[in-house]
Amino acid sequence: MAEEKAAKTAVLMVEERVFEPPKELVENSNVMQYMKEKGFKTEMEMRAWTSKNYVEFWGEMAKKYATWHKPFDKVLDWQPPYAKWFPGGEISMSYNCLDRHIKTWRKNKVAYIAVGEPVGDVRLFTFWDLYREVNKLANGLKSLGVKEGDRVSIYLPMIPELSIAMLAVTRIGAIHSVVFSGFSAKAYGDRVKDAESVVSITCDGFWRRGKTVPLKTQADEGTADAPSVKHQIVYKRTGQEVPWNKGKDIWWHDLVADQPIHCDPVFVDSEHRLYILYTSGTTGKPKGIEHAVGGYCVGPPQTLHWVFDLKEEDVWWCAADIGWVTGHSYIVYAPLSLGSTGVMYEGSPDFPDFGRWWKIIQDYGVSVLYTSPTAIRMFMKAGPEWCDKYDLTSLRLLGSVGEPINPEAWMWYRKHVGRDELQIMDTWWQTETGTFINSPLPTTPLKPGSCTFPLPGYNAEVMDEAGNIVPYGEGGNVVITEPYPSMLRAFYRDPERYMKTYWNYYWKVHPGWYLAGDQARRDKDGYFFIQGRIDDVLNVAGHRIGNSEVESALVSHPSCAEAAVVGKPDEVKGEVIIAFCVLRSGNEPSDKLKKDLVNHVKSTLGGIASPSELHFVNDVPKTRSGKIMRRIIKSKALGKDVGDTSSLANPEAVDAIPKIV
Ligand code: WTA
């Protein structure tokens, strides 16, 4: 593995298109205001200064974005690989998201526009509504004996009660572990047991593509052999019949019925844990990523305010699921902390048809939309007529996260959703980082497919295996070189794996350099282009080729909506490239189209990257968070054991991958 990581990745694709931000966006942006106050002449000067002087910068941001119960003694205590941010400070996340707003006019501002999947099922929650419901539930949790530091597992769909539950848990200083509602009973159970949670919070069921999912039954199955769980709180969402465990289950509405609407927030030490979030990565046992309260009260709101430029009157829609870090940070903590209005949608994007999202944008005047390349490629496959049907003129800024965005998907997004006018903030980050690390700002000229530069206060480099910064124009490992407030603090009860996963690789060169596990290249202007996970990189005749470059070349052909490429062992070349392509609607698979696509890659990237085989498929296997699972595609294609596919969003897509050996 180390050997493989050693080689630099080849650079095959050069993006020449540049999209300058409109003057009005730049002039009115939140970041421009900061630059004017501080006298920075250019964005690059500001990025460079704040990243170099990150301790001073974060000290200032901590005062600006968070309200502290007790001020911190110092900004940072960094003993690699462990950071303490704002030591000595005491703070409550729940207070920052709720109490400070209800003392202002925002008391009656809408915090969530909660759109259920059944058409017409819409609920509005003001900050006061949230405050009241959070407090009642917090008191309910206390009545069940939940204490500071206890873990509470939450298994709920995309309804505001999920956010309410998280805020109630943190209000009393307990630690939540949210598990994505699309995960199986077993996945929930494993995570509950690992965290030794004392309470499980779930609901009877929820809506998905017009049907109900029996979540309570799954929660029961998962927690049946979890002795730590003393109580299970059940929110009534669909009203369906549920099995009932006397003595353990309690209806949410019964628990809160007589609870007072005030509950004093528990102010905790800045380093107190806010949550654990299990991430499976691409292999192995899930890792319980721990995040700390103080840093989380600062990083998420600051990055949301600067990157997506949220203004008081914006309607923000982060279309991720709260079960992922994107939702933790940018549906719950950051927007509530800023006092923003956000949309939350329970259901599937194609229910009742592919126009659902665009109708939501039209109906609620969404102004900033943040979604993933997978979603964009799905809409590309369905065809632009769905978004063209709706009035999307309320939108003023777009965003992307989760995977490298293929430049053509970027262009499609800008054209069909962004009226050929809107800037796209391609944010590169991870569950581990808690906030965006690399991202454009509203002031940044954009290149399709690039997450541009490290944000102010962040430091990321592209390095070779020896820890040398690779020159612009070449590829290597993405390394985060300095700490930042929202970074992970540990793996839950597994310090060894924490050390091994991120820090060991460069420890001898420089303790404290974080190996992100992604490859990237920088172009001649220093723009970052993420090339994919280190493990997905191909090795063809001694050239390391980022899978995302080949996939992007395929997607740049007008008939291809999505592509996954994997390497097949080859005696001569080491590996040859095998491609799986999903066609856009209106295209039929044919041998001619195969040849066209292969030739297209050849002419875009050169012969070295041209696939030796290409197959058409209806879909490629993906995780439930939408990431293409190349490892599984490869195993299936090579006739090897694919392992457990139950965690995939579309296990049937695995069956459709042909065996090619
Ligand atoms: C990938 C999601 C390219 C990357 C917030 C990273 C991206 C992993 C981007 C983390 C992006 C995320 N461009 N790749 N804009 N955003 N990734 O933990 O491989 O679910 O390491 O966090 O997603 O995924 P996670």
What does this structure look like?
The strands form 8 sheets. The protein has an 8-stranded mixed β-sheet with strand order 12-11-8-6-7-14-15-23, sandwiched between helices. The chain has a 7-stranded mixed β-sheet with strand order 5-4-17-16-18-19-20, sandwiched between helices. It has a 4-stranded antiparallel β-sheet with strand order 21-22-24-25. The longest helix is centred in the N-terminal third of the chain and has 17 residues. The chain is of the alpha/beta class. 33% of the residues lie in helices and 21% in strands. Helix 6 runs parallel beside helix 14, helix 9 crosses helix 10 and helix 20 crosses helix 21. The structure holds 5'-O-[(S)-ethoxy(hydroxy)phosphoryl]adenosine. The site of 5'-O-[(S)-ethoxy(hydroxy)phosphoryl]adenosine has 21 residues, from helix 14, strand 24 and strand 25. The site of 5'-O-[(S)-ethoxy(hydroxy)phosphoryl]adenosine (WTA) has 21 residues, from helix 14, strand 24 and strand 25.
